[in-house]
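Inverse folding, one chain.
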């Protein structure tokens, strides 16, 4: 009897671009991909924080580079993705939320959130995919979406709209780029404890709402996203494209 062999979760020899990588989920995913063997380029606006993170990764014996980048600067995005060999993996964790009742949403807030969460995410995926297609190489494109891409939430109409849009473009890109062996998926976290979410968790009413929605007996941590990133970037997910991996503690199940 010939037994099947489990596909590898390793990423040795692959180049990964992680945006929003100076802190939180983006940094955690950069660590995960590097630990799995990828050569990781960390990109975000904060140059000092990026270099500190890349240095910490290199101190662990991992391969990491810092690339200061505003992902809404589409020319800068193209320059980075066309500078060297194509990136085999993109993990886009750059995102923005400005919560308010839908009746109070300002045009400025709508534009800021949509510009980063939809437009920048769209053209970042395009900028990574085009060199892969030209080189005839397979790839994995991952967008950090949200559980709010599958449900609604009070004061989150704009944010939920942008994340629903990310799910739609992910499906369409997966269909178009599938023949080129480029897989496109999203990771949809619940509320994750990061420096940016600490004010939310510090509010007893909001924390109670979150804990009431999550079915597991704790809130999320960045470590909960790291395994999902490795899995979807690796050959273990070779037949997965155009879908979302919910890391939401059962939020959307209810």
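Residues assigned per position:
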């Amino acid at each position: 009897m010939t037994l099947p062999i489990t596909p590898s979760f390793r990423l040795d020899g692959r180049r990964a671009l992680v945006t929003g990588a100076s802190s939180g989920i983006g940094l955690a995913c950069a660590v995960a991909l590097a630990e799995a063997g990828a050569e990781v380029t960390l990109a975000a606006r904060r140059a000092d924080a990026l270099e500190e993170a890349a240095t910490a990764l290199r101190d662990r014996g991992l391969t990491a580079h810092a690339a200061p980048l505003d992902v809404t600067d589409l020319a800068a995005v193209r320059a980075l993705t066309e500078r060297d060999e194509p990136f085999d993996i993109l993990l886009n964790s750059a995102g923005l939320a400005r919560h308010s009742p839908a009746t109070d949403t300002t045009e400025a807030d709508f534009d800021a959130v949509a510009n980063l969460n939809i437009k920048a995410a769209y053209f970042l995926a395009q900028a990574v995919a085009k060199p892969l297609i030209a080189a005839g190489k397979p790839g994995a494109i991952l967008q950090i979406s949200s559980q709010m891409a599958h449900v609604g939430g009070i004061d989150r109409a704009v944010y939920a709209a942008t994340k629903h849009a990310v799910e739609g473009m992910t499906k369409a890109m997966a269909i178009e780029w599938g023949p080129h062996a480029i897989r496109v998926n999203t990771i949809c976290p619940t509320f994750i404890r990061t420096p940016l979410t600490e004010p939310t968790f510090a509010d007893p009413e909001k924390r109670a709402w979150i804990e009431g929605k999550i079915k597991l007996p704790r809130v999320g941590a960045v470590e909960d996203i790291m395994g999902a990133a490795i899995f979807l970037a690796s050959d273990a997910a070779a037949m997965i494209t155009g879908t979302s991996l919910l890391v939401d503690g059962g939020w959307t199940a209810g």
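The CA atoms of residues 151 and 172 lie 20 Å apart. The chain has one domain: 15-192+220-247.
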